[in-house]
Amino acid sequence: MPDRTASPSMATAQESFRGFLDRLRGAKELVDIRQPVDIRHIATLVDQSSRALVFHDVIGYDMPVVSGIIRSRERAIMSMGCSTYAEIEQKLQHGIDHPIPPRYVETAPGKQVVRVGDDVDLFSLPIPMSSIYDGGPMITAGVTIARDPEFGINSGIYRFMVKEKNLTGIDIVTPNNMRLFAQRAYEAGRPCPISISIGTHPFEIMGSGFRAPLGVDEMAVAGGIRGAPVELAMCETIDLPCVADAEIVLEAEILPTGWTRPEGRFGEFTRLMGGLHWNPLVKVKALTMRGDALYYALHMPWENTWLAAPTRYQAIRRALKTAGVQIKDINVTLGGCAFWHAVISIRKQAGEGKNALLAALSVMDLKHVVVVDDDIDVFNPMDVEWAIATRVQGDRDVFVIPGARAKPLDPSLAVTPPGVVPTGAKVGIDATIGEDIPHERFERIAYAYADRAKIDDYLGGKADPAPAEGGSTTGRVAQLARKIFTLIENEPQYYQEIAAHFADYDFQTVARALGQLHEAEQLWQDARGRLCLRGSRFAAQPPSAKS
Prior knowledge:
The protein is built from 16 helices and 23 strands. By secondary structure, it is an alpha+beta fold.
């Protein structure tokens, strides 16, 4: 679908999580619910709401819950201080190209309350249930920071299912940098310290959601997106930073238990329930927070989608640029869960349809890619399907790459043992016009006089004037036939072009004059269907005459 322009006030580089909530509130994109609400109802209410929600009185808890803040295209646009959805990708690219290292601060609002050791009680946090099949309450919006002795800092967003008052799991079944850090720590027989910052600005969520290469600090990317350094503060019990502005911080360690404990199920970005995963355990050593902390519950699947998709756009654009392919537009479709399907229009040179497919299919976990010419609207599913229907031959234009690394959350894959990375197929469809196909086969229907004949004018009473040369007398028809003969002698013309050229004549006279030329066996057509003189250099020849 095309971009929808939003009109929020522009986010500033210094905007806080709470500042963003205030901006949503001012734009009537956030509603405060102050009456008592059962925590078991929160996810359902967020799912039904067109606006973000703050629940100020959650029964049995002292802390408000906010959810849905980036659950729509409009709010995602607002969160990045942009005016269109396409600008989010541009802002991400700017952050990648111009990272700003984080700034460390001595004090942080999230340290107004500090609970350590046995005083840690995750059950005191208002962590909502989500779907009816969930394995338990899950922390969904934690910006998680880890450090590897060799590869440095990594940040990401992961889910933590609460098991005990100070024990969770961490969902890292998908191959990524955090899983690598945890695996290396496990193999060394040591825990992997992590900080989990809950309630951060979407700038930090966007940055940590970007799959950066090893050694690249995602918080520096977040700073580049923000346009100012992300402020970090050191934790109390582990040698790691956390986001200073966060509402709540969990200081924890991934225990060296390996991928041996059941976790899940949980609603995924696929809009399906994920299966039971096998994951490590996480011991929470400290809980720090603001004195009036808000708990942010990121709502699946849509609140995960709108800021995740631009990371795919950026990666696809980079891969095709490296391949030397000129891109017109990209659509990472919602039907493909904003992760698995891309439609790409290119300004094609010979052979580049296939090159574009190979480059795009190398990106992340993309499964299916369609490449189209630049006359196709990638945001119009009917246009894309029409290109597939009219420009594709399966044996020539569809190819399957088996045995590629796949995402474990793909429900179409065979079940694999815990810890085994699944493989699957990638499919490319080259829906561009083939190099050996005449382009005139793809000239779309275009109706004559569309620039001047408007239905609203005629419904309003418009009447066309009668032609100056009216009446189809024999003499007038013969006179016009001679004029048409002269016109097409040197340049073939479409029937409509002839009718427009002789608009002073009524259409019946034009039709009769052309009929007279045909009857005299003087009229023919060229290979494109234009009218010309029989026997001229323009005249089309039947296939048998060419053989």
